[in-house]
Amino acid sequence: MARRTLTEQTLANQRAVRRAAYVTFLGRTDSAQLALTAWQNAIGTADESPRRREYDSAMGAVGEALNVVRLEGPDPVTTAAETLRSSLAATAPGLQHPVAQEAFLDAARVALTPV
To answer: Is 48 exposed, middle or buried (0-12, 13-18, 19+ CB in 10 A)?
Structure first.
C-alpha cells in the first residue's frame, strides 16, 4: 500500500512537471506566432527590422522551452513539439501551425492522463 502511494505520488509529480513544461512551451509558441505575424505584416515598412528581431527572440524562447519538453518527454510529445516549432518557421505554410498545435495538445493530453 505504501509503495503504491509513493508510486502514485511520483507519477503525479512527474505529470505536474510535464504540465508546467508543456504550458510554458505553448505560451512561447503563441508569442512566436504573434511575432511572426507582426513581422510578416511589417515587411516593406520601417518596422520590419524590429519586428524581425522580436520574432527571432521569440523563436529563441521557443527553442529553450522545447529543450525542457525534450527532457520531460515522452517521445510522442517531443515529436509533436518539434513539429509545432517547425510550423513557426518563416517559410512554413500558414495553415501548418493550427494543425501542429492541435497535434501537440493531443499528445500532451495523453501524456498527462493518469493511467
So the answer is: middle
Task: At 18, list the grid cell.
Answer: 510535464
CA 92 to chain centre: 16
Cα–Cα distance, 95 to 115 (Å, whole number)? 33
Q: How far apart are CA 30 and CA 34, in angstroms?
A: 6
**Using one digit for the tens of pLDDT, what is the confidence trace for 16-32?**
999 999 999 999 999 99
Has residue 1 got a pLDDT over 80? no
- Using one digit for the tens of pLDDT, what is the confidence trace for 5-15? 888 898 899 99
Asked if 77 and 104 count as a contact pair (C-beta separation under 8 A), the reply is yes
Q: What is the CA radius of gyration of the chain?
A: 17
CA distance 114 to 10: 12
Alpha carbon distance 31, 33 (integer Å): 5
